[in-house]
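Figure 6 in text form: structure in, sequence out.
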């Protein structure tokens, strides 16, 4: 690719420096709202120097980040073992003259199966996650990983890539990804708009996940201000509407709960003293539960359950 620039990567400090003012694949996934740990405001705060980046020593004190970095070579080795393909770690990072703010630092490269007509090299993204996240990898790869590998391929100029994941320290999965120019163009547009906000020092809208970050960015003081700009007035109008919807839903939920509790009481009344009753395939059960007195006072209650019939 004629627009691509290959840079020799000398050490980790150079890697950190290059990421301070450019958007890497993990940044672009966060900007797209697909990162559980970083929001667009978080990335903006990093790029404007307001908070340390996730790649710094402060962030590396996080066990999950540290372990994920240490396990990358293991994931790459498992990919090579499972596929029989040649895998190697690149000693370069990549930029493009037409997208100066973008940077690609792929985890690994591999040589695809030549019989499939694929290029000489492909991009490998290595991921680790806990067993609790297994469902997100069931027969597919998470959207965040998919976007990351496409972003890397677009910068480097590759047409083929793969995502490999180690789940819960034992289950290994991998999936091939073909470059999608339309998705890459959307990511570039998203990145352009984001970097404009960085240059203009204009923060992106905060999300519900930014509560802790907002406290870091804006320590509470005794200052009093008056908000009268159009954006603030529109936000207030939006808040009032959302609050009305929320309150109405809360009332509906309370009414539904009261109705459900009343029906449960009538069903218990029908059951009398029985601990188990069957009706149209459903099973109704009631059992006395008790709690001994330790810190709190001893008490007892009836646990009522409705078990639905199994459907083949």
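Output sequence:
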């Amino acid at each position: 690719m004629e627009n691509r620039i290959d840079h020799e990567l000398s050490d980790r400090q150079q890697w950190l420096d290059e990421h301070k003012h450019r958007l890497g694949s993990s940044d672009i996934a966060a900007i797209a709202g697909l990162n559980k740990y970083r929001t667009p405001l978080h990335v903006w705060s990093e790029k404007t120097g307001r908070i340390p980046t996730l790649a710094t020593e402060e962030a590396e004190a996080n066990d999950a980040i540290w372990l994920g970095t240490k396990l990358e070579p293991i994931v790459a080795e498992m990919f090579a073992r499972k596929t029989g393909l040649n895998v190697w770690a690149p000693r370069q990072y990549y930029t493009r003259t037409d997208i100066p703010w973008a940077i690609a630092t792929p985890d690994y490269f591999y040589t695809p199966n030549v019989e499939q007509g694929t290029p000489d090299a492909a991009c490998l993204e290595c991921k680790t996650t806990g067993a609790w996240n297994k469902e997100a990898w069931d027969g597919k790869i998470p959207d965040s990983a998919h976007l990351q590998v496409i972003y890397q391929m677009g910068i480097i100029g590759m047409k083929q890539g793969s995502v490999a994941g180690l789940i819960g320290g034992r289950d290994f999965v991998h999936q091939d990804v073909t470059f999608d120019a339309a998705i890459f163009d959307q990511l570039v547009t998203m990145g352009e708009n984001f970097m404009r906000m960085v240059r203009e020092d204009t923060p992106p809208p905060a999300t519900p996940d930014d509560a802790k970050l907002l406290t870091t960015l804006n320590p509470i003081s005794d200052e009093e201000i008056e908000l009268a700009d159009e954006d603030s007035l529109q936000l207030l109008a939006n808040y009032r509407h959302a609050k009305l919807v929320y309150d109405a839903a809360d009332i509906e939920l309370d009414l539904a709960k009261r109705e459900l509790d009343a029906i449960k009481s009538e069903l218990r009344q029908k059951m009398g003293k029985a601990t188990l009753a069957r009706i149209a395939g459903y099973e109704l059960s009631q059992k006395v539960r008790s709690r001994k007195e330790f810190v709190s006072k001893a008490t007892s209650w009836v646990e009522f359950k409705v078990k639905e019939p199994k459907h083949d």
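Caption detail: The CA atoms of residues 90 and 108 lie 6 Å apart.
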